[in-house]
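Practice problem. Given the sequence and the SMILES for zinc ion, write out the predicted structure.
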Amino acid sequence: MMKCPYCHERLTDKVVKCPHCEQFLLDPILNLDHPSIDKKNCTFCDKKVLKEAKICRYCHRWLDEVDRIARDIDPDDLV
Ligand SMILES: [Zn+2]
Ligand SMILES: [Zn+2]
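Answer key:
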Protein backbone atom coordinates (compact mmCIF):
# COMPACT_ATOMS: atom_id res chain seq x y z
CA MET A 1 0.00 0.00 0.00
CA MET A 2 1.41 3.32 -1.01
CA LYS A 3 0.17 6.84 -0.78
CA CYS A 4 0.07 9.45 -3.44
CA PRO A 5 2.88 11.93 -2.71
CA TYR A 6 0.67 14.74 -3.98
CA CYS A 7 -2.77 14.34 -2.44
CA HIS A 8 -1.99 11.63 0.15
CA GLU A 9 -4.83 9.46 -1.06
CA ARG A 10 -4.20 5.74 -0.82
CA LEU A 11 -3.22 3.99 -4.01
CA THR A 12 -4.31 0.41 -4.34
CA ASP A 13 -1.57 -0.87 -6.61
CA LYS A 14 1.27 0.32 -8.75
CA VAL A 15 -0.47 2.97 -10.72
CA VAL A 16 1.41 5.32 -12.98
CA LYS A 17 -1.14 8.03 -12.48
CA CYS A 18 -2.99 8.90 -9.32
CA PRO A 19 -6.74 8.48 -9.92
CA HIS A 20 -7.54 11.08 -7.27
CA CYS A 21 -5.54 14.11 -8.31
CA GLU A 22 -4.50 12.87 -11.78
CA GLN A 23 -0.82 13.46 -11.13
CA PHE A 24 1.72 11.22 -12.80
CA LEU A 25 3.79 9.37 -10.23
CA LEU A 26 7.12 9.78 -11.93
CA ASP A 27 9.18 11.28 -9.18
CA PRO A 28 12.45 9.50 -10.08
CA ILE A 29 12.63 11.41 -13.35
CA LEU A 30 12.71 14.64 -11.38
CA ASN A 31 16.27 13.74 -10.41
CA LEU A 32 17.33 13.30 -13.99
CA ASP A 33 18.60 16.20 -15.96
CA HIS A 34 17.04 15.58 -19.31
CA PRO A 35 16.02 18.33 -21.71
CA SER A 36 12.76 16.59 -22.54
CA ILE A 37 11.62 16.67 -18.91
CA ASP A 38 9.94 19.93 -18.22
CA LYS A 39 10.19 21.10 -14.66
CA LYS A 40 9.20 24.17 -12.81
CA ASN A 41 9.71 25.52 -9.34
CA CYS A 42 6.82 25.34 -6.94
CA THR A 43 5.23 28.74 -6.43
CA PHE A 44 5.06 28.16 -2.71
CA CYS A 45 8.12 26.20 -1.56
CA ASP A 46 10.35 26.67 -4.63
CA LYS A 47 11.15 22.98 -4.97
CA LYS A 48 11.36 21.34 -8.39
CA VAL A 49 8.18 19.69 -9.60
CA LEU A 50 7.04 18.38 -12.95
CA LYS A 51 5.83 21.12 -15.21
CA GLU A 52 2.43 19.51 -15.66
CA ALA A 53 2.01 18.84 -11.96
CA LYS A 54 -1.12 20.31 -10.48
CA ILE A 55 -0.17 19.65 -6.89
CA CYS A 56 3.27 20.19 -5.37
CA ARG A 57 4.57 16.94 -3.93
CA TYR A 58 6.45 18.76 -1.19
CA CYS A 59 4.01 21.26 0.24
CA HIS A 60 0.84 19.70 -1.24
CA ARG A 61 -0.60 22.94 -2.46
CA TRP A 62 -2.41 23.30 -5.73
CA LEU A 63 -0.05 25.00 -8.13
CA ASP A 64 -2.88 26.57 -10.06
CA GLU A 65 -4.24 28.04 -6.85
CA VAL A 66 -2.86 31.42 -7.79
CA ASP A 67 -4.61 31.23 -11.13
CA ARG A 68 -7.85 30.26 -9.46
CA ILE A 69 -7.66 33.16 -7.06
CA ALA A 70 -6.79 35.52 -9.90
CA ARG A 71 -9.81 34.33 -11.85
CA ASP A 72 -12.07 34.94 -8.89
CA ILE A 73 -11.00 38.55 -8.57
CA ASP A 74 -13.17 40.93 -10.51
CA PRO A 75 -10.84 43.42 -12.25
CA ASP A 76 -13.38 46.13 -11.60
CA ASP A 77 -12.89 45.71 -7.87
CA LEU A 78 -9.24 46.66 -8.18
CA VAL A 79 -9.91 50.05 -9.68
ZN1 LIG B 1 -3.04 11.97 -5.79
ZN1 LIG C 1 5.62 23.29 -3.00
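Check your answer against the key. The chain has two helices and four strands.
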